[in-house]
Amino acid sequence: MKPAKVLMSDVAKAAGVARVTVSRVLSDPDSVAPATRAAVQEAVARLGYVPNLNAGTLASSRSRIVGAIVPTLSNAWFADTMDGLSKVLGAAGYQLLLGQTGYDADAEEKLVDAFLGRRVDAMVLTGTAHTAGVRLKLQNAGIPAVECWDLCDDPIDMVVGFSNEAAGEAVAAHLLARGRRRFGFLGADEDRARKRLQGYRAAIARAGGGEVVTHSAAPPTSIDDGAAGLAKLLAVEPRLQAVFCSNDTLALGALLECRRRGLAVPEHLSLVGFSDLPVAAACVPPLTTVRIASRELGERAGLLLARRLSREPGEVPRIHDIGFSLALRESA
């Protein structure tokens, strides 16, 4: 015989309290006296009760869930951000619900609809480029929202990240200082990579440099994409002296293609990546790259949301620039 489902009323009876008290312990435990809270939590654990978190079920109508949307979890930098976010939110009593878009703007809007329909308490988005529908729905939802991995002057609510354009400019300045004059860019076909190219190209133009040879691959990109992309760049400009890759995965593929062709790095061709994966320092030669504190980014977003969700007094700033740095190694 199938066992009967444990109800909130069963927990209330076992703990010797009213049903509304159980609801309050589950939704806002700090509002209940410690002894009562302990009795309810013991009954929940003993009976194996799983609360129904649909909006309106609990006294506070809070789901204790934060929805987060990333382009992909196959890239370590997004996974690190989500790990940092999850740990901070978990310590604050919230669970993280993840969705991935595959770099598709319409898929992001459908995920936003799904999360808002399940009454999440807050949202985290990757990047600042969204459909008008996403912006409108989140602004109307009245819940905290954080955009990350980029910066903008007019976030939906809050933004935690860095300037992708400035990162591209910093890479160009470094390569120009190293005497490089023929430039390439190997990127993923997505908004943040295009901003890195924009900054890279602008800095080179200001210095009187020539046109940047570019190639883009559909994200999420792979090591094979990096190798194939460098081959295409060299087919257009065999005299390339420096290539900026929009992520370390592409840069590693480019490095392997250089080795296959017998092109010395950095003597013949300088290579720069982006994100500073652990393998960047371990490859031969070690890869110069843009270092992003991806885990710290997630932690910062989590702290901002926890503060807003706890309704602490005082205004929470909307724009948080965590910056970036160049990890200078032998490849450039």
Helix and strand sequence: HHHEHEHEHEEHEHEHEHEHEHEE
What is the total number of structural domains? 3
| Percent of residues in beta strands | 15-25%
Rg over CA atoms, rounded to whole Å, is 24 Å
CATH fold topology of the largest domain: Rossmann fold
Average pLDDT figure: 93
* CATH architecture term of the largest domain: 3-Layer(aba) Sandwich
Low-pLDDT regions: none
Distance between the termini: 69 Å
- Described by the principal axes of the CA atoms, the overall outline is elongated
Largest sheet strand order:
2-1-3-4-5-11
Q: Any idea what the CATH superfamily of the largest domain is called?
A: Response regulator
Helix content: 40-55%
The number of helical segments is: 12
How many β strands by DSSP? 12
Class of the largest domain, according to the CATH hierarchy?
Alpha Beta
Structural class: alpha/beta
Q: Tell me about the biggest sheet?
A: 6 strands, parallel
Describe this structure in words.
The chain has helices at 8-15, 19-27, 34-47, 76-91, 105-117, 132-141, 164-177, 191-206, 223-236, 248-261, 278-282, 294-309; strands spanning 65-70, 95-100, 122-126, 145-148, 158-161, 183-188, 213-217, 242-245, 270-275, 288-291, 319-321, 325-327. It is of the alpha/beta class. The radius of gyration is 24 Å and the shape is elongated. The model has no long low-confidence stretch (mean pLDDT 93). The strands form two sheets. Strands 2-1-3-4-5-11 form a six-stranded parallel sheet, with helices on both faces. Strands 7-6-8-9-10-12 form a six-stranded mixed sheet, sandwiched between helices.
